[in-house]
Structure formats: C-alpha cells, structure tokens
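In this section we walk through a basic example: taking a raw amino acid sequence and producing a predicted 3D structure, encoded as discrete structure tokens. The instruction is simple. Fold the sequence below.
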Amino acid sequence: MGRTVNKDSGHSFEDYFKRATSPMMTLLLLNEKPMYVYKLSQELERRSNSTYKMNFLYPVLYRLQQQGYVTEYSQEITESHRTRNYYAITDEGREYLDYMLAKYRELLKAVDTIIEGKGDIDTTMPTDSGFDGEESF
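The resulting token sequence is shown next.
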C-alpha cells in the first residue's frame, strides 16, 4: 500500500504523527538510559517492528536540549580517543515526559471514544434557535 500524502502540504498523516510524538518517544528512551543518536534511531525502529522510523532525530534532540529536557556529553569509545556524543534526560525532562504521557493517553482515549461513537453527543435539534427571522445588528 502506498503512502497517502496530504496534497496541500506534501506530508502524510504518519509524518505529522511522528513529528508530534518524536519528543515524547525520544525522552521515553532516554529515561531508560543515555544513548547516542544512531542507537536511539535503532531502538525506536526495533521496538516498533520497523514502523516508527525517524531520520531526523538531531533537530528533536537540539530542541529538547534548548528546553532543558536533555543534556549532551561526549564519551571516549576507543583507545584511539574516538568519542561519541550521548544524550541523557534531565530531571525537568522526566517531569515533561510524565506530562506528555498523561496528555497523550488522555487524547488517545478521547480519539478512541470519538471513533467508537461512544461519546455523549446530543443529536436532538434545539426547539428554540433564538432566531426570530429578523436581523438584529
């Protein structure tokens, strides 16, 4: 099945969803342990059975860093002094992650309720519309 794209913007529903959830997914993984970008990308892909692929993690990490939710540090990984940049979640990042997870669950529940048609929707027509046929400005 081909990827359906919004004709006005060139972006798919999947693109918008990933963009909205990528900070939460990034913080969720960093909450477990510090990681470097390639490892973050691999872990997202692995845990989602290759459904959740993110090619542009650096902008997400930079934004989270600017907001104080993530820190960056370098670590030597070889005897030849090769270093790798790791990202770690901050205490503020954990608080923000908790907030995002709560909001995500709340919104997901609301969307599911709407989709399933279980919401309290008033389908009756009002008896008095408040319009008496005369314009009043």
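Looking at the output, two observations stand out. The chain has a mean pLDDT of 85. Strands lie at 70-76, 83-89. In the next section we compare this with other chains.
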